[in-house]
Amino acid sequence: MSSEDTSARRRVAKGPGCSGGFMSGSDYDTDPLQYDDHKDGHSKLRPPIGGRVSSGRLHKPYPTPPTSISDFIHQNLEHLPPAIYTLLSCWTRFHKIGLADIVVWDEAHFGKFGSHYLKREFYFDVHPPLGKMLVAFAGLLSGYDGNFEFKSGEKYPDTVPYVAMRVMMATFGVALVPLGWYTAVELGLSPWACHLVALMVLCDVAWLCISRFILLDSMLLFFTFTTVFFLTKFHNQQYQSFSFDWWLWLALTGISIGCVTSVKWVGLFVTAVVGIYTIEDLWDKFGDLRMSTRNQLRHWGARILCLILLPILVYMTFFKLHFLILNHTGPGDAQMSSLFQAHLVGNDFWRNPLEVAYGSKITLKNMGWGGGLLHSHVQTYPSGSTQQQVTCYHYKDDNNHWLVLPRWNGPAYNPNEELRFVKNGDVIRLQHAPTTRSLHSHPIPAPITKLNYEVSCYGNSTVGDVQDHWVIEVVDDIRQGKKESLDRIRSLTTRARLRHEVLGCYLSAANKVLPQWGFKQIEVSCVKENDPDDIHTYWNVESHWNDRLPAGDVKHYKSAFLRDFWHLNVAMMTSNNALVPDPDKDDILASHPTDWPWLRLGLRMCGWGDNQPKYYLLGTPLVWWGGTLSLIVFVALLGIYLVRWQRRYVDMDATGWAHFLYVGKVAFYGWFLHYAPFFIMGRVTYLHHYLPTLYFSVLMSAHVMDHCIFSARWKEKTKRILFGVTAFAIVANFWWFRGMAWGIEGPVNEYWGLQWRKVGFFSVVMEACDDNWSAIRLSF
Amino acid sequence: MSAGVRARRPATPPLGLSNVTPSAHRYPPSLSRKDDLDADARRQAASKGYGPGHKGHAPGGLDITSGEWKLLVIVLIVATLVRLFRISHPPSVVFDEVHFGKFAGRYIKTRYFVDVHPPLAKLLITAAAFLFGFDGDFDFKDIGKEFVNVPYVAMRMVPATLGVATIPLAYLTLRALDCKASTALLASLFLTFENGLVTQSRHILLDSPLVFFTALTTFVFVGFSNEDRHRPFSEQWWTWLVLTGLSLGAVVSCKWVGLFTIATVGVCTILRLWLLLGDSRVSLKTWSRHFFARALCLIAIPILFYMTMFEIHFMLLGSSGDGDAFMSSEFRQTLGHGMPDTYADVAIGSQITIRHVNTQGGYLHSHLHNYPGGSGQQQITLYPHRDENNLWLVLNATVENYPQYDYEHQPIEYITHGSRIKLRHIVTDKALHSHDVRPPVSDVDFQNEVSGYGLTGFTGDLNDDWVVEIHKGDRNDKESSKRLKTLRTHFKLRHLMTGCYLFSHTVKLPEWAFDQQEVTCNKQAVKDNSLWYIETASKHPQLPPNAERVNYRIPGFLSKFWELQKVMWTTNSKLTDRHVYDSRPWSWPFLRRGINFWVKDHKQIYLIGNPFVWWSSTASVMTYILVRGFLILRAKRGYRDFENTKLVKYDMLCGFLFTGYALHYIPFFLMSRQLFLHHYFPALYFAILLSSAVFDFATSTLRPRIRLQVACVLIIVAVLTFDKFSPLAYGSPWTRSKCNKATWVKTWDFAW
Questions:
Q1: Start and end of every MIR domain (chain A) (predicted)?
Q2: Pairing of strands B378-383, B517-522
Q3: Which of A293, A620, B15, B302 has the fewest CB atoms within 10 Å of its CB?
C-alpha cells in the first residue's frame, strides 16, 4: 500500500448534500458525487477522469536493446529464478521415472488408447482425443509399435519404451512450474509471492506424482495453466486494444481453451472462468460511454471469434484427426452410427443390399445416442405379460436378427414370387429369427418406464395376432433427404419409426437399463406420445441380408463429419453420466468432493506388494491446507472490507481495491468453478479431479499472503523471515512426502510406519485432522 | 421512460425491498405532514380527500377509509359464495383427499403414520373433523368412494375458509404496499375468480392453507416493514415482527414449500439490514438491536412454532400404525407395543435375534423355502416382524464338533472382536452360510449369496464361519465396545473364507421370498449397510436369573423430531415415480395442462386455472423482467432513470413481488421429485399481485374514474372466463359441445 493510505484509512464524513443521492441500494448508485453536477435530463455519466485504475502487472517501458553482454544479463535477470525452478522441476519430475516397470493405475487405459492410434483401430472413450493422441505421438516418437495390451499391473516388455513415453508426459509437468511463475508475475503479485507460487507448484507431491505416468492429467494441467497464463497476459493488454500483442494473447487464450477441452471435459471449467472474465470485461466496456459503437462491436466480435469460434474449431479439428487416424474397425464401433461404421476398414456393412424387401433378414439399430440393436432372447419378463423379453443390445449376436414379413391378414411371404420392397407406410411384422416369435406390444406397462407399453416377443412363425403389426414411418434419408422423395427403405441411411398399428405407440429405446433379469440391457418400450423429434424412436437398418438382392456399393453410404462428431460427443456424454457409483459398493479409490480440500484421503495407484515400488497419490498437505485456508481467509477479508465500505471506511485506494479483486476473482472463480460442479455430477469422483482446482487455491494462497504480508506495511525483515519460514516449510513438507511420488521401495510397514511416527508435530496434526488417514497408515 | 429530471427526494418507497429514506430514523418524525409528501403522495392524498393535516401514520401503513372496509366486506361475501357454492358436492373422495382425509382418521384413531408434509394443515383439518364427530373409521381408500359417516363438509370448510380469507389479505397487502384501492380490488377479485385456487380450496387438500399462510406472511411482513420505516422498536413494531415470525412458522408447518416464503422474507430482511448498515446515522448499537430482534423473531420463533407442531403431532399419535415401518426401533418403542426387557449379555450358546442397523428391513430371518436359482439352498432374508424364524443360536466355530459343545457347563465365553462364530437357525437347524454364488437380485461380481445350509447332525463346513468385528459400542457402557452386548454393540460379520461382509440393502426379493428384503455377502461393503446389532438374547444357562436386562432407550423429543425430519426428507426425495398428471415447472406459467381430480357419472372436477388471470399474471412477470433488464442496460449506459421517484416506487413494489414469485418458483427446477400444477400456487399468488402492480403502474397517469373503469373491464373478463370453466371446478353438468369448445389449448385433457 502506498503512502497515501494513512490518509485514506479513516472514516469519510459525507456532506449532507450527498444523502439524497443515496437513494437506492441497487447497483445503480454510481459514485454519489456524480449527482452533484448533473447537466441535463438525459445526462450520461461523465467519463472518469484520466489516470488508470488498473489491476494486473504494472506496465513497464520496453528496455533499450542491450549493447553489451552485462547489459543483456542485467535486463534478463528476472528470468533467472524461473529458470532455476524449471531445472529443479526437471529433476523432480524425471528422477527415477522408470522405477516401476509395470503398468501403473490408469496407464492401463491411456496406454491402451495410445496403442489404438498406432494401430489405427476405432475405440471409444469418455474423454476427447487430444491427450490420447499426444500419448500416441509420444509412443510414435519413442518407437513403440502399438502391440502391447497395457493390462493393469503387468510388466512392460522390452518392446515398450515406457520410460521415454513417461518422460514426454512428464515434460508437460515440468512446464507447470515456469507457467506458474509467469502467471504470478502477470497477475501483478510481488516477487515474494511469485516465488511462493513457483515453490508450491514445484513441491506439490500430487502434481508431481500424476505427471510421472502415462496419464492425461499432466496435459490437462498444462493446458489449464496455459489458459490462465494467456488470460492474464491478455488482461495486461487491456489498454492496447487491437494491438498485435492483444490479438496474440486473445487468440492464444482461445486456442488454449480448445486444447484443454480436447484433453478432458473438465477443461470446460477453466473455459467458464475465461467466460466470466470476458462477460464482466464486456459489461464494463458497455458502460464506457467514451467508446464508440464501432469499437464496442469490434470488442464483441473479437471475443466471439477468438473465445468461441476458435476453441470450437480447435476442438473439432482434433476430432477430425481422430476420425482420420482411426480408420479401421476396433472395439468402439458399436457406439457409433451404422453409417459411420460402414466406412471403417474391416467392416462389411457397405456390402448390404441397398433396399429392404420382404423376406430380408435385418438388424435394427436405435438412432438415439448410444443406442443399441433391437434384441430378443428366450428369457421372459418376470412381471407384466411374462412373455419373451425384447431389449437393446450393443454387441453383434444372432439374437439381433429379424425377418421382415408381411402382415398376418394379408398374403403370406412366398420366397418364389416376385420380390416386393418395403415401402413407407407399409404394415410389417418383424419375426425374431432364432425364436420365430414376432415383435409384439400390448397395453401392459413396461417394466421400467411405466407410462409406456411393454414390448415383447409373442407367438411363433404361424401363430400371432394383429398386435404384431407395425407401421413403418420413414423420417428421412441421410443421403437422399426429406421423406417426400422416398419410397423404399434403404439400409444404413434411412431413418424410420415403427408405429404399433393397433395402439398407435412408437417403438422406443431410451437408455433405461433393465435390472439383472434383463442382463442390464436397455429397455425397449412403446411410447404413447407421438413426438416426431424423439430420436429414441428412430431406427435404421444396420445389417441386411437378402440372397435375392445384389450387394450394395460403398458410394451409397457416405457419412458426414459433423453428424459423426455430434454423435460421438453425445455418446461420450451419455457414458460419462453412466459412470454412477454403486451405492452398495465401497470403492476405496473413489472419494467425495468434500474429502479433497482438506486432503482427507489419497489414492492408491498400484499394488502394495513388498517387492514393487508403490505410489500413493496424496498432495503436499501444507500446499493443500494452505490453499483451502487462504480461500476462507479471502472470503472473510472480502466480507470485512465490504462491511467497512458500507460503513464508509476507506481501506484501499481504487488501484489497490481493483488489484485485490482482480486476482481474488480469478483465483476464487477458478477454484469455485472447478470444484462446485463435482457436487452436481452424479458420476463417481476421484482425488485427481481436484488437481486443476488446486492451482487456483495455490494462486489464492499466494495472493492472500501477498495482500496480508508481502505487500502490507510490515518491516522488510519480518517479510523476509515469514517468507523464509513458509518456503522452508513447503520444501520440507515436500521432502517428507517425496517417496509417494518417487516410489516407495521395500515393505511399506517398516519404512513408512517408522518415518511417519518420527515426525512429532506433523503426525499429530494428521491424526487430529482425520481418521481416514490414520486408517490408511494402519493398512500400510 | 424518460428521465425527466425531478431533482427531488424520492417518494417514500414501498416496503419489502424498501431502503433507507432520509427521514427514516428521526425520532420523532419532525417534518410536517405536508413536507413529508412528494407530489405523487400529495396527489393521492388529495384524491382520497385527505387534508394536508392528516395524521402521521396508520398501523402497518394501512390507510383505509371506512368506504373501503365496506367494499372489502362485499368482496368477502362474493369470495365466500364462489368458494362455498355447493361445497358438499361431490359426496365422494376427490383426488388427494385419499391421503389427507385418511390422515385425519389416523390422528383421531391415534395411529402413527408418516407423511412428507409437516402437520399443521392436517391438524386443522383433523380438528374440524373431530369437532363434527368423525370417528376415523372411513378409510378414504379410492378416488370416487362415497362418504359414509364422515363430516366431510366440515373438513372441506377448513381449506375453504382459509381460501376465502386469502382474498382480503391480498387486498390489504396491496394497500399496505401503497397501491391504489382499485388495484387492490382488482387483485382480490382476480384471486376470487381464479378457477385453480377455487378448485383447490374446495377439497381436503393442503395447498389452500399453504397459500393462506403465504399470503398472511406477506401481509404481516409488509406491515412490519411499514412500521420499521416509522418507529422501530415501538410496541407496534414488535407486534408486527412477532406476527411475521409466527406466520412464517405456520407456513413452513403446512408444507416444506414454506421454506421459500422464509427465503423471501430472509432476502428482504438481509437487504434491509445491509442498507441500515450503510446509513451512517444508525449507530452500530442500534444496528445490532435491529439485527438481533430480527434473528430472534424471524429465525427462533418459526423454529419453535414448527417444533411445537411436531410436539402436538407426537402427542396425538401415540399408538402404532402403518408409519411404524419407516421409523427406527427406538422410535417405535414410544408407539405402544414396546419390547419387553431382554438380557444384556450375549455369549456362546445364547439364542439371539439380529437386526440390521441402517434399514428398517428388520430381523435376520430364514424360513423353509429355498432359492429358486443360485445355489438352491434355503433363503436368508430380512423380515420386519417378530417371529420364531428370527431366532439364531450362537456357536463357537473354533472348537471341534461344535454342535455338541457343552456351553451349558463350560465356563461362559463372551463374544469379542475377532471371535469366530457360527450362527445356527433354530427352527430349521441350518447354519448361516455364504459361498461364491451370485445373489438372486443383486447379481454383481462383488456380492455373494447368503443361504441356510446344513442338516441336523451335519457339522457343516468352513463356509459357515463368520468373524465378529465390533464397530462401536455404547458410550455409556464401556463393556459393549469390547464384547457383544444386546442392543448396545454395532458389529459387522465377516465371512471367514471369502472376506465378504454380511450385508443388506433396501432391495426386495421377488414373490418367491414374500417380498422380504435381500441379504447378501458383500466383498466391498459400504460400512453403513453392513452393521448389525442384537435385539434380544435369551437367558444364557450360565447367567444368574437376576442378570442385567436392557431395553431400547426411549428417545427424547429432539431425537424423535430429528429422525422424523430425516425420514420425511428421504421419503420426499424418493417420490420420483411418474404420475399420469404430473408436470414439469416450465409448463406451469403457461398452464399447459391441469390435473384430473375426480370423474363420476359424466361429471368431472379438473384442476385448471382461469386462463385469463393466469396468462396475464405470466405476461406481467415477463414484462417486469424485460423492462427491468432494459433499465439495467440503460443504467449502465449512464441514464438516470432511477432518479425518477415514481419509477423507484414501482421498482421497489414490483421488485418485492417478483422476488417472492421467483423464490417460490425457480427452486422447483432443481427438484427431481414428481411435481404437480398446484405446486405453482404460491408463486401464482405473487404473480397475480404483480400483475395488479403492473396495472397500477400502467394506469397511474389516468384519472381515478377511468382507472376504475379499466379495472372493471378486466374483472368482468376474468369473471366470464371463470364462468366458462366453472363446471370443472364445481363438478357440475356440462354439455359436450361446451366442453369441447373450452379446450382452448390442445394439451388440456379434460374433454373425454
A1: 353-407, 419-475, 486-544
A2: antiparallel
A3: A293
Question: CA torsion angle for A84, A86, A92, A96 (degrees, to 10)?
Answer: -110
In this structure, the answer to whether residues B480 and B625 fall within a common structural domain is no
Task: Pick A44's closest partner by Cβ from B522, B632, B637.
Answer: B637
pLDDT attached to residue A749 = 56
DSSP summary character for residue A113: H
Task: Enter the ipTM.
Answer: 0.82
Q: Which strand (E) or helix (H) includes residue A432?
A: strand A427-432
Q: What is the CATH number of domain A345-561?
A: 2.80.10.50
Report if residue B282 sits inside a domain. yes
Q: Cell 418364389, residue?
A: A416
* Res A233: pLDDT: 94
Q: Do B578 and A450 touch (CB under 8 A)?
A: yes
B522–A585: do the CB atoms touch at under 8 Å? Answer: yes
What are the residue ranges spanned by the domains of chain A?
84-320+600-754, 345-561
Among B527, B550, B573, the domain boundary falls at B550
B538, part of any domain: yes
Interface of chain A toward chain B, CB-CB under 8 angstroms: 14, 19-20, 22-28, 35, 38, 40-45, 283, 286-287, 289, 382, 450-451, 515-516, 582-588, 643, 646-648
How do residues B494-506 score in pLDDT, each as one tens digit? 999 888 999 998 8
Going by C-beta distance under 8 Å and a sequence separation of 6 or more, which residues neighbour residue A296? A285, A286
Chain A residues touching B638 at Cβ < 8 A? 43-45, 287, 289
Rounded Cα distance between B577 and B587, Å, is 19
Mean pLDDT calculated for residue range B138-165? 91
Rounded to whole angstroms, the Cα distance separating B415 from B398 reads 12
Strands B532-537 and A481-482: unpaired
Q: What is the domain range of residue B410?
A: 340-550
Task: Say how many domains are in chain B.
Answer: 2
Asked whether residue B158 falls in the same domain as residue B233, the answer is yes
- Give the tens place of pLDDT for each residue, A194-233: 999 999 999 999 999 999 999 999 999 999 999 999 999 9
Give the 3-state secondary structure of residue B525. strand
Residue A515 exposed, middle or buried by CB count within 10 Å (0-12, 13-18, 19+)? middle
d(CA A232, CA A274): 10
CB atoms within 10 A of CB B712: 14
pLDDT tens digits, residue range B17-51? 444 444 444 443 434 444 445 555 555 555 544 44
A702 Cβ contact list (under 8 Å, min separation 6): A184, A189, A193, A194, A196, A197, A200
CB-CB neighbors (< 8 A) of B636 in chain A: 283, 286-287
B48: which 3 cell numbers?
Answer: 382520497
Q: Are A493 and A477 in contact (CB under 8 A)?
A: yes
The three cell numbers locating residue B393: 443360536
Decide: A361 and A378 in contact? Cβ < 8 Å: no
Closest residue in A to B9 (Cα–Cα): A20
Tell me whether residue B654 is in a domain: yes
pTM for this one? 0.84
The pLDDT value recorded for residue A313 is 96
Overall size of chain A counted in residues:
780
B293 & B344 share domain: no
Burial category of B558 from C-beta neighbours within 10 Å (exposed 0-12, middle 13-18, buried 19 and up): exposed
How far is residue A724 from each of residues A196, A718, A720, A729, B673, measured CA to CA in Å? 10, 10, 6, 8, 55
Q: Quick one: average pLDDT of A377-394?
A: 86
Q: How many CB atoms neighbour CB B324 within 10 A?
A: 20
A289/B510 CB distance under 8 A: no
User: Residues B546, B586: one domain?
Assistant: no
Q: How far is CA B316 from the centre of its chain?
A: 20
Give mean pLDDT, residues A643-655: 89
C-alpha cell recorded at residue A672: 469455485
Residue B309 pLDDT: 95
Q: β-strand A453-458 against A388-393: which pairing, if any?
A: antiparallel
